[in-house]
Automatic annotation (TrEMBL):
It comes from the Bacteria. Residues 52-147 form the Methyltransferase type domain. GO terms for biological process: methylation. It comes from Sorangium cellulosum (Polyangium cellulosum). This is Methyltransferase type 11. Pfam families: Methyltransf_11. Keywords: Methyltransferase, Transferase. GO terms for molecular function: S-adenosylmethionine-dependent methyltransferase activity. InterPro entries: Methyltransf_11, SAM-dependent_MTases_sf.
Length: 260
């Protein structure tokens, strides 16, 4: 996609995530304790950290970080997602979290405002992920850390994976392989400190309940995943568990440090 596609793609993101806000927040896999422990261990938040969570969605990561840091600000372009984030904050009593409406590619903050800048599951929706990573690096303090958590399919399976994800979620742009994602860190002036990989276990119908495919898309995806059992062209290890289809998104947590 080119920059000329940006307004149309932004509309897709607004449409999809306004509708997905509540079900996305309720998907168990997004708050899975084991995945969150891996994330927090990789980020190694400190009590004096001032954190920015970019494209924060329903505030899952921001609220998980809040007990471990001085303060957290979550930014998202979708008002409905921020509504869900505020509900989560109120339920947890996280007093040191604030929310702001804004664009990940044009962060409304001065340089070196945060010691830890994160984003989770956003880069595959971006037409220009490097622009967002450079913005994240810009607002990160010297010596601070920037972390991207996202799906990173195998290089030989990415194209098939992308086609399937665009059926499930029309706002999907392009998944980055781990090699591509780590190369972006170098281009943004960030020195990689840590890469943690894990599989995010998901049940297909649960994923579809939190998605809004085009008409007929859900049935196409069901057929695609069932045909992939024992084949793994998608690279997600689709398997049958009783009458259900389970699979695992290949996730990478990439943490870089801004040079001082």
């Amino acid at each position: 996609m080119t920059q000329a596609n940006q307004p149309t793609h932004d509309v897709l993101i607004q449409e999809q995530f306004t509708r997905q806000a509540r079900p996305f927040a309720e998907v168990r896999a997004h708050s899975a304790e084991s995945a969150m422990e891996l994330l927090l261990d990789a980020l190694a938040p400190a009590p004096d950290d001032v954190v920015l969570d970019v494209a924060c969605g329903p505030g899952i990561v921001a609220c998980a970080l809040s007990p471990r840091v001085a303060s957290v600000r979550g930014l998202d372009i979708v008002p409905a997602m921020l509504d869900e984030a505020r509900k989560r904050q109120a339920k947890l009593g996280a007093a040191n979290v604030a929310w702001e409406l804004g664009d990940a590619s044009r962060l409304p903050y001065p340089e070196e405002s945060y010691s830890l800048v994160t984003t989770r599951y956003s880069f595959h929706h971006l037409l220009d992920p490097l622009a967002t990573l450079r913005e994240m690096a810009r607002v990160c303090a010297k010596g601070g850390r920037v972390a991207v958590i996202d799906v990173t399919p195998a290089e030989d399976k990415r194209d098939v994976y992308d086609r399937a994800e665009k059926i499930r979620d029309p706002s999907h742009a392009r998944a980055l392989t781990e090699r591509e994602l780590t190369a972006l860190f170098g281009a943004a002036g960030l020195e990689i400190e840590n890469v943690v990989r894990h599989g995010l276990e998901v049940e297909l119908e649960a994923a579809l309940r939190a998605s809004f495919p085009e008409p007929g898309g859900a049935d196409r995806l069901r057929a695609l995943y069932r045909a992939d059992v024992g084949v793994d062209a998608l690279g997600v290890g689709a398997r049958e568990v009783g009458d259900e289809i389970h699979f695992a998104y290949p996730i990478a947590i990439v943490v870089g440090r801004k040079r001082g």
